[in-house]
Amino acid sequence: MSKLIAPSILAADFGNLQRDVEMVNSSDADWFHIDIMDGVFVPNISFGMPVLKAISSHAKKTIDVHLMIVDPDRYIKTFADLGADILTVHYEACTHLHRTIQAIKANGMKAGVALNPHTPISVLEETIIDLDLVCIMSVNPGFGGQSFIENTYKKVKQLKELITKTNSNTLIEIDGGVTNKNAKQLTEAGADVLVAGSYIFKSDNPTETIAGLKLLCN
Ligand code: DX5
Ligand code: ZN
Fold it and tell me: Quick one: which of 58, 89, 125, 207 is 20 to 30 A from 17 by CA?
């Protein structure tokens, strides 16, 4: 399967949101990555439902929603109604992770789990078979524009081994500090989906930056 690029809308120009969504639509990007932060699970608040509704109304590609919120179960149906195709919750925010995964699927979405940098891959041994996606955080969640944590490569390899060993059908997504400097090494280690915010939207030509990233890892 070809490696996927998911621009993170957190780094877009919110004054020109429709323009930036259309740019992603007509680019080589595969998904929209949408970061929802509540100021409790992470020390920042991003944006909420009305903004996601506006994005969804223009987006023509898969909508990958990354919830950095406590008690995500409360909002599963809401995000399904808002057009999320994939809903990712944080392992660290879920007391009953298995139940949460089943609820996401019952609402017609693909289910993802994100792991903070300090959380080992081994915590997913019992749930990997049920997961459509695992998002390995390569920065501490909460902000765009942070530096990539090098220990991520090791975790990608460990997760790839777990997926192979259990014959699971799970995509490996990397989120945080992704650039042309680490994209190839990440996909070679087993990553399937690369999220990139600042590297794309702060570049002179985001469309070309996306094309370059796509080419680099395929
Ligand atoms: C961080 C978010 C990321 C972020 C990535 O908490 O989950 O998706 O937008 O941004 P960059 O690519 O700038 O690190
Ligand atoms: Zn994210």
Answer: 89
Cβ neighbour number for residue 134 with a 10 Å cutoff: 28
Handedness of CA 5, 10, 14, 18 (dihedral sign): positive
Q: What confidence category does residue 22 fall into, taking pLDDT thresholds of 50, 70 and 90? A: very high
In the block, which residue shows the tokens 């949460």? 100
Is residue 133 a contact partner of residue 110, using CB atoms and an 8 Å limit? yes
Q: Is 30 a catalytic residue?
A: no
- Provide the whole-model pTM: 0.98
Q: Which of 143, 173, 200 to mutate to test the pocket of ligand 1 (most atoms within 8 A of CB)?
A: 143
Ligand 1, pocket-test mutation among 35, 38, 68, 87, most atoms within 8 A of CB: 35
Pairing between β-strand 133-137 and β-strand 110-115 as defined by DSSP bridges: parallel
Give the DSSP letter of residue 38.
Answer: B
Measured between its terminal Cα atoms, the distance across the chain in Å is: 9
